Amino acid sequence: ADFRIMVLEASNVPKEYKSLVVSWKKGAKCVSTSPATVHRGRAEWNEAIKVTTALCRVGQQVHFQAKFCWLQVALEDGSVVGNDKGNLADCCD
Question: Smallest Cα–Cα separation from 22: which of 41, 3, 39, 46?
Fold first, then answer.
């Protein structure tokens, strides 16, 4: 299945961070946003990350097995400063 995860903004960013990148990584795969400059504690992207992954149905039921997607927030040098997890199966019907 293909997903487009919209990355909009980060707020309350520490003032020592100059720019941020949001990435999805799985094994050798990596998809990232462009770097966003931090201004007054905010970084804005308004960019989509395309994630392609396999989803499995649970038996004959209508819902899918949980498939977690981890996003990382990093400095341009690759140092990870935050992350978030979402279940892609929650977005399927």
Answer: 46
- Checking phi first, is residue 92 left (phi over 0); if not, alpha (psi -120 to 50) or beta? beta
Distances (CA, A) of 35 to 19, 72, 76: 6, 13, 7
- The total of other beta-carbon atoms located within 10 Å of residue 30's CB is 10
User: Which pLDDT score is estimated for 54?
Assistant: 74
Instruction: Tell which residue, 36, 57, 59, has the closest CA to residue 47.
Output: 36
Which segments of the chain have a pLDDT < 50? none
Query: What is the pTM (predicted TM-score) of this model?
Result: 0.80
| Look-up of token digits 């990350």 | 49
Rounded-to-integer distance, Cα 14 and Cα 66, Å: 33
Query: Rounded to whole angstroms, how far apart are CA atoms 84 and 40?
Result: 22
Sign of CA dihedral 82, 1, 48, 35: positive
